Amino acid sequence: SLTAGVVAVQGNVAEHAAAIERAAAAHGEDVTVCEIRESGLVPDCDLLALPGGESTTISRLVHDEGIAEEIREHVAAGKPLLATCAGLIVASSDPRDDRVDSLDLIDVSVERNAFGRQKDSFEAPLSIDGVADEEPFPAVFIRAPAIADVGDATVLAEWDGRPVAVRDGPVVATAFHPELTDDDRIHRLAFFETEDSLERAPTETVSNGES
Ligand code: GLN
């Protein structure tokens, strides 16, 4: 059985927990989700979500609580992390904002609140590399960042000519909020369809619990 952590210092925690549970069930995995508000829990987690919210607050709290270094070690060990919206900003190598002390986990620079005030929130149908494409992904953007420069990361999706989803090793990051719809394809991609987990599972059939 797997342990999932949702960094819960601020932001959309319950929604990520529910999406992780659905994605795990779709892959026949048992998962226990715990909320991370203090240090000492991340080392027990097999996978982690870093939710949206407000990036200056999240970055300050993860550093103050001693969680920042544990998240870095999690990723350095090759374990999956899904960072969404403000989580993308916090995980980036360059948040282009001195008030965000970012974790340098994805080699991208970001532009906060890049999609304009009159479009504070919108939904876009995205085609995402690695996500089964029978229908577009309903991506909810809320005061979303855009990805500006992409270094070593791989772009998975674009909207309006800008990258909005990337992968960098074990990290998948989105400018939008995949936890706010009941579509869990991004959570499956980030956590259960990584190169490592695909090597473990046979293609086509997904094992139902025992691996
Ligand atoms: N605008 C927020 C920030 O820059 C991110 C918004 C979100 O996570 N929905 O921190």
Q: Could you give the topology of this structure?
A:
Layout: E1 2-7, H1 13-26, E2 31-36, E3 47-50, H2 55-64, H3 67-76, E4 81-84, H4 86-91, E5 92-94, E6 106-111, E7 121-126, E8 137-142, E9 146-150, E10 154-159, E11 162-168, E12 171-174, H5 185-192, H6 195-200
Parallel strand pairs: 1-2, 1-3, 3-4, 4-12, 5-6
Antiparallel strand pairs: 6-9, 7-8, 10-11, 11-12
Helix pairs in contact: 1-5
Glutamine is lined by residues 52-55, 85-86, 89, 112-113, 142-143, 145.
Provide structural commentary.
The chain is of the alpha/beta class and 211 residues long. The chain has one domain (2-200): Rossmann fold, CATH 3.40.50. Helices cover 26% and strands 30% of the residues. It is built from six helices and twelve strands. It has helices at residues 13-26, 55-64, 67-76, 86-91, 185-192, 195-200, and strands spanning 2-7, 31-36, 47-50, 81-84, 92-94, 106-111, 121-126, 137-142, 146-150, 154-159, 162-168, 171-174. The radius of gyration is 16 Å and the shape is globular. The model is unreliable at 198-211 (pLDDT under 50). Bound molecules: glutamine. Glutamine (GLN) binds next to helix 4.
